[in-house]
Structures are given as C-alpha cells and as structure tokens.
Amino acid sequence: MWSSRGGKPMISANQTSASDVPPEVPDQVDEAALAEVMRVVPLGAGVVAGTAVALLVLGYLAIYLLVFLPRGPVG
Amino acid sequence: MTEQAAEARERRILGTELLWAFGVGVLIAAVLGVIVFTALTADINPPSNVERIDPKTLHLSGEFAEQNLGTTVGADGGVTVRVIATQFMFVPRCIAVPYGRRVTLRFATPDVIHGLLITGTNVNTMVVPGFVAQVYSEFTRAEDLLMPCHEYCGLGHSDMWATVQVLPESAFKPGQDGRVSCAQR
Amino acid sequence: MRNVERLCLAHCWVAFAAFLAASFLGAWQMWVRSPLGANIGTPGEYFISVTAHGVSMAYVLTTFFIMGFGYFVAVTALDRPLPGKPWAWLGFWMGVIGVLLALAAILSGQASVLYTFYPPLMASPWFYIGLVLVVAGSWIWCVLMLVAMRAWKNENPGLPVPLAMFATVANAVLWLWTTVGVAAELLFQVIPASLGLVQTIDAGLARTLFSWTLHAIVYFWLLPAYIAFYTIVPRAAGGRLYSDTMGRLTFILFLLYSLPVGMHHLMMDPEHGNGWKFIQVLLTAFVSVPTLLTIFTITASLEIAGRLRGGRGVFGWIATLPWERPAVLATGLAFVMLGFGGFGGLINMGYGMNAMVHNTSWVTAHFHLIFGGSVVIMYFAIAYEIWPRLTGREHASSAPLRLQLWLWFVGMMVMTLPWHWLGLQGQWRRVANFNYADPIIAGWGPLVIVSFAGGLVLLVSALLFVRNLAVLHRSPLPALQQPLYALAVDPPRRVPAALNGFGLWNVLVLALMLLAYGYPIVQFIIAPSPGAMVHRVY
Q1: How far apart are CA C458 and CA C53, in angstroms?
Q2: Which positions 10-69 of A are in contact with C (Cβ < 8 Å)?
C-alpha cells in the first residue's frame, strides 16, 4: 500500500517534486480585481454567518424554554 | 496597490473582524445570562452536592443500609429516595415518587462507576464510588418512567434499569414508617 | 519532497486502515442495537467492538493522521527538510507497536473498558501500555514540530512563521498540554492498579484527570481541519484568506481555552460542586469564540473567491464558487455539519441543560456529527489534496471524490439527526441490546433503524475513500505542479512576537489551568476520596 510498492512515485528525492514549490508562490488572483471585490466583502459573509449564528442562538433559547424547563427543576 | 492603501485595507478587515467578534460576544453573553439567571432564580444547577462515602462499607452505613432504601417521607414532609447502584441492578428496582412535589434522590455504589437518568425528566447524575450522588427535581408528569443506568459499568450494563412510578397525590400514601412502595400493577 | 513522502504515507495509511476497520465495527454495532439485530451479538462481543471502534477512531485515526499531516506541513510550508527524521520514524514505530498491543488486548476480550476506560473498571495492563506508547510516540512528533519551527525562525529572523506551520505547532503545544491529564491518570493510578500493585483507586481523581484530556483532545483533532480552512481552502477556491492575523489569533485562542474546560464532561459528577462547574462553563463559553471567528473569516474568504468568479449581490457569490473541487465541497458540507454539531455543543455546555442530555444518545450523536462529520470530512479533503503531492500522481477524476464526500455528509446527517431526538427521549448510551418489548423503547425502534441506514451509507463512503486513495498510487497521470497554501488578502511582512510564537501563551495556559483545575485536582491529593475497589475485566 505504501509508495515504495506497487509503482514508484514519479519523483525521487533528488528531483524537484510537485510539492517542492515554495510556499508563498503568487496565485492567479488579479490584484485589481481583488481590490474591486474587497469593496463589498464581507457583506455576504456577514449576512450568511450572522444568520447562521442567530439561528443557533434562537434554537438554543427555544430548546431551553420549550423542552428543558418544562421537564422540571434540577439541582 | 500602494502600501498605505494595503494598510488601510488591512485595518478595515480587522475592523470588520472586531465588529463580528463584538456581535458574537454579545450573543454568548446573552446565553450565559440566561444560564446565570435561571441558576439564581429557578435554582437550576447541575447536581452539585459533594459528599463522600466509603464504598466498601455502604451496606453497613446507616443511610444506605437495605432497610432504608427506597422512598421515605420525612417528618417535615420532605421526600427522599435512596438507591444503591451496583453491578447490574438498582436496589430497589422500583421507586415511587409523588407528582408535583420536590423529591431528593440520593445514590451510592459499592463497586464501579454508574450513572442514571429518568426519562422525560431532568434527573441525571453519575454515581461514582466514594461519593454520594444527590439530585433533586419535581416530576411534572404522572406516569411510569424508565431509570436506566447510562454509564458503562461492565458487560451487564445493558440490562441495568429501574422503574419510576410517578404517583398522583391520592395514590402516594406513606406507611407508618414514612416509606412508600411502588403500586402493585 | 525531501523524502518525507514515505513518512507521511506510512502515518496516513495506519490512520485510514484503522478508520476503515472501525467503520465496519460501527455499522455492526448499529445493527445489533437496532430492532433488526435484536438477537445478534453477545454483550461480550458488543463491548469488544465498542472499545475497538472508540480506540481506533479517537486515538489511532486521529493521532496518526495528525502526525502525518504535520510532517507534510513542516516540510512544505517551511520549505526545508524535516529535522530529526530518524526520531520521527521512532515515534511512528512506537505508535504502531502501541496500537498492536492495545488491539491484541481488546480483541482477546481483556480490555472491554471502552476508549474512556473509567476506573475502577480495569483492563489488562497491555491495553494501557499500548496507549501510553502511542502517546509517547506522538510526543516525539510534538518536539519535532517545535524544533522545525525554531530552525526556520533562526534562518528567517523577523519573518512571520507561515500560518500553516504556526497552527500546526499550536496544535503540537496543545497536545503536549492535553496529554498530561491522561498520562498522569495512567502512570500514577491506572497502570499500577492494573498490575495489581494497588487494590483500590481514587475514582474522583481519575475522572478529573481524564476530563483534563477529554475536551482538549477534541480540539487537537479539530485543529487540522481548521488549518485546512485557513491555509488550503482559500487557494482551492481561487481566492484569498480574509485575514492572516485572525487565523493566528484563532489558533492561539484554541490553545488557551481548549484545556481549562474539561469539567463540563463532569457536569453530572458528584465529586465537584457547582462553583467549579460554573467556572469551567464560563471558560467553555470562551472556547466557542475561535470557532465563531472562523465561521466569519472563512465565509469571507469564500466570498472573495465567489465574487472574483463573477458572483454579485448578497448571495450570488455562493453559486459561483468552484463546488466541483473536493476541498471546496468538503468545506461547505463541513460548515453545515458544524452548524448542527455546534448547536448540540451549546446545549451540552449549558450548565443546567446538560442534565437533559448527559449520557444519552444526544451526546453520541453530537460527537459523531461534529467530529465524525465536520472534522473527518476535512481529513478526507486534506488527504485528497496532499496525496498527489505525496505520490507524484494525480486523481484521474474528481467525481468519485465528490461522491464520497456527499455520501459521508448524507450518511452522517441521517445517522445523527434521529439520534439527537432519541437522546431527548431518554435513550441512553453504550447498550448492547435494547429491550424492544418495553413500550417506551419500542417507540424508539423506527428511528434507530433510520440511524442504522445512515451508518450503512457511511460505511460505503469509508470504503470509497480508501479506494480513492489506493487507486491514486497507480494512477498514470503525473501530479500537477500547483502551489498548495493560500495567500492572505494582505500577506503580512511582520507580525508581533506574540503572534509568531508560544512563549507568552504557555504562561497563560499554565495560569488558566491552575485556576480551573488547581484545587479540583489538588483536593484529591491532600484528601483522597474513599478508594473504590479495582474491578478487573480480564
């Protein structure tokens, strides 16, 4: 199952490999397009994440008031 | 992009993160507020009576000797249930409790860790050898409930459970010694 | 890749082999518990399976995968060879021997104490020794991660440590702190009792020490998934990481707040009072913060990617994301499961509300969904991303990868959502056979069967996952040369020392642990609880 059986990897320790690429390689993002997009971001994220978290908290309160408390006190 | 513009953008990014963190903080504080409020006003807490007892001499102790197990109504009207959890049964196997009154349940074990819950209620506690587990509640439904052992205690764990009969006031009649047994069904 | 391919692949294959075996056990357990398997399997067999399933999923899959991924990050993110590689192999073999010892004890029926092994239940000493070996092997990994970061910092003075490595080292530091609890419990209490050197054991102390590890360990498991969110997914989606700084802060917050919160696993225990329980609930509320920050930061990062691809309006960027890429799909599915799982977690920590769910199927459902679901699906995504780089070959098609991820998501939701409901009804944990003749329990039957169906889908997904990786070893396509790690919107050129190392944070962890666990532990050393008789299961 390991890489040394069933076929050698296409790279050896001496050659450059697919992961020998330096980490901070520039990506394909166009800086001008990024600047344009960054004028709107994080509006969408705020709405989506905000709604999700709000639903979470409302769900928590609903379970607390409607399911937990009616079962009686505890201590 | 110029360096100042990049720095300005980074500050804006961190500003939005701070705003989000603030919003999140408010929500968490609200949740904690609910917890603290009900803890103080409605007396909602996890079972927290810390009391030690020697598991090796349980059966000899006054409180958990066999004749004291089960439901007892004290002179002040307080209802106390005493149960031993052991591999692999609860003693007694059937417990009678009153509907709508506060009940204090006390558990001890001579052997390994057990735990229990009563279905449909908030009664839930671990039973750890060396400690008395105490939990109180009020039963809001007058019916027969299951009280299983819910912590793995060995191969017989699956068959370890007791029955709880929640009796309406009319049927919850203590005997001369203050004890209440399960109704014969 | 500077010769860590074999090291990474070795760790990952051990992890995934354990995962696959445990998946079969899990499916069998779900069958036996359901009305369909009511007369199958003895309790002896069932609890061997539960112990093996728990140990494999919670200790083997996780530790080995995290170590393998960590070695990969240390080499690729720092762009330098791994220091101390012979030590890494030593750690690996210690772990493998440990797993084999523990497994032998479990399968011979001498260690049916489950992966939580609460004393005074006592298994064969080989079980515990095996686990100690796995942990000790992982400590070597921790040290190597620290050494690698230190070496890079010496060669790159003043530069920010690449986020993927910073986060990996945060996880290594977290793991060192985390394992103290269980190591103390095993070395000072359990193993002596298991060897027969003592006849009683302080159960209150043992549970408290284990709780130290029990919550922090889930963050050890979770952090690699978050490393993927912050450092792999934004590039996979074609965008940028919204904020590198918030990434660093998130991992620091996890290091601080994962540890002093373990007592919420003891909320129903009689050995601690509500004062200490409340303090730890308060701290637990803080550990929800880094997750909530992550939800925002990663969603914003995805928004960047979606808008760069033409998405408009408040929601348009969601549809334009490259969902056909496994890393992006896995993230979306992980976030949905994180929502439901996080909701369950809020309930669990809810001080009083814990009484409603403790030791019911709600708890089992919760951790299968949040760990088995959102975290493990990201393990799959990470594996799919790094495998080409480890083998030098490319996936022939991403369709089977996406199918596998979808099956995992559907299976997990179908298995765990009914389980939550059953937990609220009072269905309790760790049961070999339910008595479906009882009217209350009979009512649960149909949902148990639905849950079982979800488990079967998961098994298919697990098989497909292993298949997808195995065929890659023989793929004729050479790996595409593409960079892995994401850039931030504004990559930092300098970061403050506090965001580039852990000296300060270790001091804070110590302070928090003294506050939260100091008295709760020391009380047992000063005044041990009445000893519980050791109960051998072997």
Answers
A1: 14
A2: 10-11, 13, 17-30, 33-34, 37-38, 40-49, 52-53, 55-56, 59-60, 63-64, 67-68
